What we know:
Largest interface: A-B, 15 and 27 residues
Shape of chain B: globular
Shape of chain A: globular
Number of helices of chain B: 9
Distance between the termini of chain A: 26 Å
Helix content of chain B: 25-40%
Helix content of chain A: under 10%
Order of helices and strands of chain B: EHEEHEHHEHEEHEEEEHEEHH
Number of strands of chain A: 6
Structural class of chain B: alpha+beta
Largest sheet of chain A: 4 strands, antiparallel
Oligomer: heterodimer
Radius of gyration of chain A: 12 Å
Strand content of chain A: 35-45%
Amino acid sequence: MSQTTTPASETLTASCPECGTTIAFARPPRRHEIVRCPDCGAELEVVGVSPITLALAPEVEEDWGE
Amino acid sequence: MRLTLLHTRIRVEERLLIEELERRGIAVELVHADDAVLDLTASRMPTDEPHVLLDRCLSHTKALAIVRAYESRGIVCLNPSAVTRTCGDKLLTTIALTDAGVPTPRSMAAFSAEGAARAADELGYPVVIKPCVGSWGRMVGRLNDRDALEAVLEHKLSLGGPQHGIIYLQQFVEKPGRDIRAFVVGDRTIAAIMRHSDHWITNTARGGRAEGLPVSSALDDLCRRTSRAVGGGAQGLLAVDLLECPRRGLLVCEVNSTMEFRNSIDTTGVDIPGAIVDHALHVAEAGAAII
């Protein structure tokens, strides 16, 4: 799975691993939080928070649900 | 007080719950299902500290295993694994509702293409086919005739896993362009919405539009009976999906044990994450007194 990592000095932004656009966070995200890229619409998972690291969110599995 | 939140993703619902707990000064231990490693033979450690696990795991299979293991350590789990097992499997849900006399659409199970054809003939077309385990309206189909049934079954039985060998068919209910979702916390229906859609599948995950619905005493009574039917009772945290049948009135269609509520806070004016946290703390304290 491709990931993008943001340098520690830019703590509240990260690059979309799908389209490369810079995504700004209004608050520090949590690990495993799901965000959507405002440009390409890709569903992304925060896989690291210091620095912020994004990866494409895993596909929904058959037994997932509420 | 220890509170463990079991999760797969931190979605809006999980974030709201975490923020509510932090606002109250309660430390949250976040456990991702994929990171859990459980010593199944470890001795149970007696403790006076109340400990509750809030299950927000997306995977029904993993949630069942992890929650059952936590229960074995004396930790109060919401929902209990027995509730998750029943609600996560439509066949078991239907049996539990029927046993308790809760009205539900007529449903049948078959275990071969020939058996499914007989069941569909008995229910009448159109008939709804659903996977026993699954959510968000995925792989749910309205089959208008025998041709459609045979086509779906050929794919399901050749491409699906063993679970697809159980064919769950349900009577199609002509609903008025909407269904009802009610949120049951403990033995109380705290809120309800109507989900409108031009499509016969009205899940908000599939584009259904939510609108607040006042909780009538009849709706509250039916939802509390539903909660008791699936084992929730005083502990349950459940979202009950209901259909308005023109002939039979309200029918309970499905019961969800890890409710999604992001579209139902503003529409109902009810602080659903706050109610869930209140309930979790209450149940944990009560559970600690019993253990």
